[in-house]
Fold each of these.
Amino acid sequence: MNIWLVMLIAGLLTFATRLSFILLLDRIRVPEWFRRGLRFVPMAVLSAIILPELTSPHGSLFLSWRNPQLLAGLVAILVAWRTKNVLLTIAVGIAALLIFQWILGLP
Amino acid sequence: MLNKTRTQEFWTGVRDEAPILLGVIPFGLVFGALAISAHLSTLASQAMSSIIFAGASQIIAAQLVATGTSGLVILMVVFVVNLRHALYSASIAPHLKDLKTGWKLLLAYLLTDEAYAVAITHYNREGDAHYQHWYTFGAGLTLWSSWQLSTAVGIFIGAQIPSNWPLDFVLPLTFIALVVPAIKDRAGLGAAVVAGVVGLLATNFPYKTGLLAAALLGIVTGLVLEGRKK
C-alpha cells in the first residue's frame, strides 16, 4: 500500500475515533451507567499513563527506592494534593528528580 | 461566575497548555528524526504529524514503515493505539453538545492526550461557561503548532537531546498536577489507583492495549464504588 494512502486512512481512523462520541452522544441512547462512568475517565486514563512512567522509566518495571522517577513522582503527587498548583508541581517534581538522581549517583 | 470573552478563554487555554510543551517538544523532535531514519520523505514525515496528529501512534507507524510492515497492519496498529481517544471523546462530548458541527469537527481533530487533559480539567473546575470551546481550541492549537514545529526541527536537525534529558518527565508531572486535585471522593480515588496499578502491571502489553484495559478497569471500579455508597 502507498505510504500516503496509509497515512490518509490512519488519519481518518484517528479522527473518527476522536469524533465518535462528540458527534453521537446526544443522538444515541446510552445506558445510565455509561454517563455516570464518564466522570472517571480523566483520572483513570491519566493515572494509567502516569504510573508506568514512574515505575518503568526505562521500559521495564523498576519498583525500588533507587528509582528517582518514582520518588520524584511521589513528591509531585504530594505537592499537587496540597497546593493544586500546576507550575509548582512541575518545578518541584523536576527539582526532586535531579536531586534524587544526584543522591543516587545516577548520570 | 462572570463569563470570560472569547479572547480571554482562548489565551487562558494557550497559557494552561504551555507548561506541557516542555515535555511534548522533545517527543516531536524524536518523531521527526525517527521518520527520516525510516526513509520517509521530508514531506511525508511532516504530513504524518498533521494528518494523524497522535504522537505515540506516529512513532510506532514510522518504526513499522522502517521494518517494511504491510499497510494494513500499520492501519490496525494505529487504530488500536489511538482507541483511548474514544474515551476522551465520550468524556468531553457532554461539554461540546451545544456547539455547531464545525466546532465539533475542529475540536475532535485537536483532541490529543495533552489537550484533553488540560481541557477536561478546565471544564470540571469552571463548569460550562459560554465561550469555553475557545479555551479548548486555544489549548489544542498550542499543542498542534508545537507538534508541527518540533516535527520540522526533528526532520531537519535531528533529535540532538541528551539521553538523560529531565524534561521528558514534565509530561507525567503535568498529568499528576491535573489529576490529583480532581480526585475528590473514594470512587475517584479507587478509579485512579486501580487504573494506575493495572497500567504499571500491563506496560508490556503491545500497542497501548494495557493502557486501555487499565483505564476501563479503573472506570468500572469507580462505578462499583459509587454504586455501593448509595
Amino acid sequence: MKKDYIDVWVMPVHSGNNLLPSYNQIADKVSKQFGRRVQFKIIPWNKALKMLFTAFKMENPPDVMQVGSTWINTFSHMGYLDRVPVGFDYPKPIADWIYQNCLDKGDRIAVPWISEASMITARKDILDKHDIDRHELHSLNGFLNTCDRLHHLYKYSDDAIYPFIFSLRPEPGRLHYLIPFLWTFGWKFKSFSDKEPMFKLEDLQAPFDYIKDLFTVSHIDKETVTLNPYVLNQQLYLTNKFVFSSGHWWKVVLQTLDKNHDKPSLEAIPVPAGKAGQTPWGGGSMLCVSSLSHYKTEAWTIVQHMISDDFMLKRVETGGDVPAFETSFWDKYSDIPQIMLLLDQLKKANCYPIDPLWSSYETIIVQGLINLLWHYIYDERPLDGLYDSIITPMNKKIAELNSLAWESGLDE
Amino acid sequence: MSREMSFLAVKLGVEAGHILLSKSSSAFEQAALHIYNGLKVFNILSLRLYILDDKGEGLDEELYIEENTLIQGNDYIPTYQLSESICNLVMVTNQNNDSYTTTIPLSHQDNLIGTLEIETKQRLDGDVLHSFSCLGEAFSAGVYYQQEARASEKNEYLFDAIMQISYNLHAVNSIDELLKMFAELTLQYLSFDRVTVFVYEYHGKEPIYNICVTSRGESITLSKIPELPVLDSEPLPLSDLSGYWIPLRLKEKTIGCILVDNIYTLCDISVDSITVLRDLCSLMALMIDNVRMFEQINKYAQFDDLTNTYNRRMGIELIEKLIKTADINNKAFTLCFIDLNYLKSVNDTLGHLVGDKMLVHFTDIVKSTIRRADIMARLGGDEFMILFPNCQLESAEMVWKRVKSKIDQVNSSKAYPYFLSASHGMAEYTPGSEMTPAQLLSIADHRMYEEKKLIKNL
C-alpha cells in the first residue's frame, strides 16, 4: 500500500543522545517544500538489517534509509536502491574506500554519511597516572606488556582492574575489531571463489595466541566478555574496571569536543602494529533512497539536508560519529590531535571486500571466529582441534555460499 | 520483604502471562511493561526480556525497559555463552557495580525458552527470589503461548501464499514457461531472495531445464550447472545458510529439484514453509509430467519415428508456412524431393532391419550436411524432402552436391552391406507465384523422376 508520508529510517547515535530535534527540523523544511509529511524512525543497529530486509520483502520499505557500509552491495544487488541522480553532488569522501563502497559497477548507489575506523578506546586518566608511554602501545609486544604491567599495579588493590576488554558476543560488529589483529599478522582476504580455505590454521595461530595472551594478562572472566559491547563500553567510561576497550570511539570524540571537559578521561589509540604494519578496519554508513519509493525527489532532498554542514556538525557534537566526507567539521577541529588521529586512521583503513554476499559472509565469519576464540581462551583446548570442529565447517560454508551465487558468479 | 510482596510478584507473572494470551502484536511489550511497573516496589532499575530464537541457537533480546522507556531489544546471546545455571533452569543473581541483576529462566517442559533479567538496586532476599521464580513460571506459560501464536500466524500466512501460488499456476504447453511461472509465483508469494528450478532429462539425472528467478525480477538460465545434491523424498537444508533443496517428486521418482534461498538476506525460512512447499512441488512435478506427455504426443504427431525427421503431414504444413514467409519477406526458397534408390531390393534380400538401418544412415548423412535452418522430412517409404529456406535453387544444388559426395565416400569405404544411392529433383518457390505445396512437390517429384530414369539407364 502506498504510504502518504515520506518514511526515513535511521539508526540511533551511540551516545544515546536525542537527534530528533535536528531530524524534525529537516522534516519540517521538506514537508513545507513538498506539502507532504516526513517521518523519521529510529531503528536499533543490531536489528536494522533484518528490519530493512523484511520491509523490502513486504514491499513496504522506507523512502530514505541509513545503510551500513558492509550491507550496501547486498542492497544494491537485491535491487533495493535507487541510483543517485545525475546532478546530485556530495562532498568528496575522506578516503577512497568510502567512495568505492558507494558504487556498484560504476553506478552511484549511496551517499557517504558517517565513518568509523576500528581503534582502541583507552582510559587516558589511568594511563597518565602511571606515565604510560603512548609509543609503547603502538606495538603488539608493547601493548601486551602494558596490559600485564597495569594488572600487576592493581593486583593487590581493592579496585582490581582488567586492563584489556573485548566483548565476545558474536555480533557482526565485533569482526571490525577482530580483523585488524589478523591483518597485522599478515592475513589477507582472498577471493571467495579461491579454492584455498579463507582461514587456514597457520593464519589464525599467531593472532589468536596473541589475543589469548591479552585476555590472560588481563584476567577477564567469562561473565564479563559475554556482556554486550555497549554495556562493556559503558563500564569503561563509568567505572575504573577497564583500561582498554575494543569498541567505538564516539565518547572520545564527545569528550574532546566538549569545551567544558578540560580533563578528558578517555583517548583513542590505534590498534597495535605487528609484522604486517597497522591497518584499521574502516566502515560507517551511507544514505540511500529506496528503489520502491514513490517520493524520490523528496527523498533525495532529505538526503541533501542530512549531509549539510550544519547538520553534520550537530550530529558529531551530539553523537560522536564523524563525517565520511570533507566538511567544515574537519577544518573546525583540525588543531585537535585526537581528531586528526581519527582522520589519519580513517584514511589508512581497509574495508571489507565489496561483495553482494558480504553481509552473509560476515555473519558466518564472525560466528566462527568468536566461537573459536571463546573455546580457545576459556576451554583451553588446542587450536588445531578447535580449528577442525569450528573453522573447517565455517570455511566449507563460505565455499558453499560462493558456489550458490550463480547469478553473479557462474555465468560471468 | 513481606509475604505480600512475594505474592505480588507471583500475581504479576500470572497477569503478564495472561496478557500474552492476546493476539496483539505488542503483547510482549504490554506484558513486560506490566511486570516492570508492578516491580517498582522492589526498586527495579531495568528489565530485559530474551526469547529463544527459531533455531534454538541463542537468546534474542525482545525488549529492554529502563527509566520507564521501552527500547526494542538488540542483544543476542548464543546458547554456548549461557551460564550452566541458566541452562539448568536455575535462577542466577549477579552483582554489578552498584546494582544486582537477577536472571529468571523461562521454560516449557524443562526446555529453556527465554530469560527475564531484572536489575534492582538492592540484593533481593530469599523469599522474594523464590517468588520471582514463581513469577517466571507463570510468565513462561504466556511466553510459550505467544511463541506458538506467532508461529501459527506465520503458518496462516504461508497457507494463504501457497493457495495463491496453486491458484495462479495454470496449464501451459512449454516446460520453460511452466518453470518460469512457478519460480516467479513462489518468489512473489513467499518472498525468497531467489528461486531456482532444475528439471532432469526424461529418463535420467542430468538437468536439461533450469531457471533462476531473483528478487530483482530477473530470470536467468544457468549455462554452467552446479553440482546438484542427491535428494530422496525429503527437503535438504543448506548448511545454516537459509535455504532448502526440495525434490520434484513424481510417484517414487525424482524428476528435478528446486532451491529456495535467502543467501543474501539470511532471513529465516521456517520448516513449516518448506513442508507446505514440498506439497506444492509434488503438484509442480505432476504438471511438468503432463507438459512432457503433451510434448511427446506432439512429437509423435509431427515426427517420423524411425528417422527422427518430420513426417509427411508436418512436411506439407512446413511448406505452407515457408510459402507464407517467402511471400512476406519476398525471398525464395527451394524444395528438394529425394528418392532413396534400391531400398526395396535391400529389404527383399538383406531384410527390413538392414533396410531400416540404410534409411537411418542416409538421413544422418543428409542431416549432418545441410544447414541448421534447413528442414528434412520423410514423405513415406523411400521418399524424403529437404526444404531450404531463403535459398535459391543453385545454392540448394551446391548443398546436394556435398550430400552426394558424402554418399560416395560411404560407398567407397565398402563398410556397409548396402550401396547408398539417391535421386533428387528441386523446385524453387518464387515469392508471389501463388504455387501450392502440391504443385511445388509435383515439380520436384517430376525432376527427381527424370534423374532416376537416367540412373537406371546407366
